[in-house]
Amino acid sequence: MRSSAPAPRVITVVGPTAAGKSDLGVFLAQQLDGEVINADSMQLYRGMDIGTAKLTLGERGDVPHHLLDVWDVTETASVAGYQRLARAEIDRLLAAGRTPVLVGGSGLYVKGAIDALEFPGTDPGVRARLEEELTERGSGVLHARLAAADPGAGRAILPSNGRRIVRALEVIEITGKPFTANLPGNDAVYDTVQIGVDVARPELDERIARRVDRMWEAGLVAEVRALEGIGLRDGRTASRALGYQQVLAALAGECTEDEARAETVRATKRFARRQDSWFRRDPRVHWLSGAAEHRGELPGQALTLVERAVTA
After folding, report:
1. Is 183 helix (H, G, I), strand (E, B) or coil?
2. Where are any strands of DSSP class E within the chain?
3. CA within 13 Å, CB half, 194
4. pTM of the prediction?
């Protein structure tokens, strides 16, 4: 089944973890002379394969995949850095007459790639001072200050998320404007068709539990141990990835492997709900069922949606 309709400028396939985005992205790329661009922040890290459910070469269906394995685990993730990489790939594919298919569940990365999203600069001195205060006084004190300076940001950022709190306070100090003034809107820079893969929570929770079981069976603990040897524990972003953070805790003797496994399931379920909430806020996302009972229909429905959007 190959489409004869012209492809849109960019397709995105989004939704929560374990919904079935990766396989759908491969299918659409195959049908629309496209190539996949990764939009999962943790799949950018080299060696983080099992715990991120990175597709193997065999599972990629001969479709070129881009922005996988580009960062060392010691490198701190940056949405601005990803934006530069993703737009370079999108523009290169468009110039070659190919269809970019952006696939992933990192909401801010997706928006950074396709929407008009600018990133205020950073001030190393301000950042260092705030991080020192975070270490000494804790995230609660800084969150209270953020909520007073920018109530919207205080509501949007969890009191426990010290990294984002520090960034928000830094932006406020540098720009003199509320952090929320820099939050992303829906002003697109590319013509885009966005497809969301929807799976009801009971089924999604079951898939997540099975996926974590498969990761352990596939050797996640050994993968984390090997990455620890090349600096994973020192990586500010990579060390906090789901599964990796929990296994690192087990390797440090802070919990058992069984406890790490159970916590990975719980944390992934929470993360999937946050992903779903993020993408639901964007009215441009067209949701299709990825439930098991509709698995055979999903590829055709997605292709039809794309073709209708192009010819509308």
Report:
1. coil
2. 10-14, 34-38, 65-66, 99-103, 192-198, 285-289
3. 24
4. 0.84
